[in-house]
Amino acid sequence: MNRNDALKEFHEGGERLAELIDEGSPAELPTPDSDVPMVSRSVRLPVDTYERVREAAEARGIGVTTLMRQWIEAGLADLDESATVSLADVRRAIASLAHPRAA
After folding, report:
1. For residue 3, is it within any domain?
2. What pLDDT is attached to residue 84?
3. Whose CA is closest to 74, among 89, 61, 59?
4. What residues make up the domain containing 76?
5. Domain count for the chain
6. CB 3.0 to 4.6 Å from 67: which of 20, 23, 28, 57, for a disulfide?
7. How far apart (Å, rounded) are the C-alpha atoms in residues 64 and 52?
8. Helix 64-79 crosses helix 47-60 at what angle (to 10 degrees)?
9. How far apart are CA 98 and CA 103, in angstroms?
10. CA atoms within 13 A on the CB side of 42
11. 68 near 53, Cβ under 8 Å?
């Protein structure tokens, strides 16, 4: 049975619904990137802003939502003074102390 016939059967409330479900193949779901339960929220961004975020995520080799989540977590940590700092930022700060720029 093709998809259109299956949908028609489903919407007509036919008795074969259980059979149609049994005939289908299991869906392949993506593996979550976290063990922590997540909530999905929609965020409206100007196209230019989204492109900048996408480029920043691509440069880091991570997904856009992962980068946005990291930025939000860092911002929240800053609010409660439990700031999370990336190792790259720490290394840059130490390097700048070791080699101060001439003023």
Report:
1. no
2. 67
3. 89
4. 43-102
5. 1
6. 57
7. 10
8. 100
9. 15
10. 1
11. yes
- As a three-state string, the secondary structure of 31-91 is CCCCCCCCCCCCCCCCHHHHHHHHHHHHHHCCCHHHHHHHHHHHHHHHHCCCCCCCHHHHH
Note whether residue 49 is domain-resident: yes
60's CB contacts (< 8 A; 6+ apart) are 67
The SS3 call for residue 103 is coil
Q: Token pair of 22, please?
A: 């049994």
Domain presence at residue 16: no
Q: Rounded CA gap, 94 and 92, in Å?
A: 5
Mean pLDDT per 10-residue section of the chain, whose length is 103 residues = 74 69 76 80 94 95 92 82 73 80 58
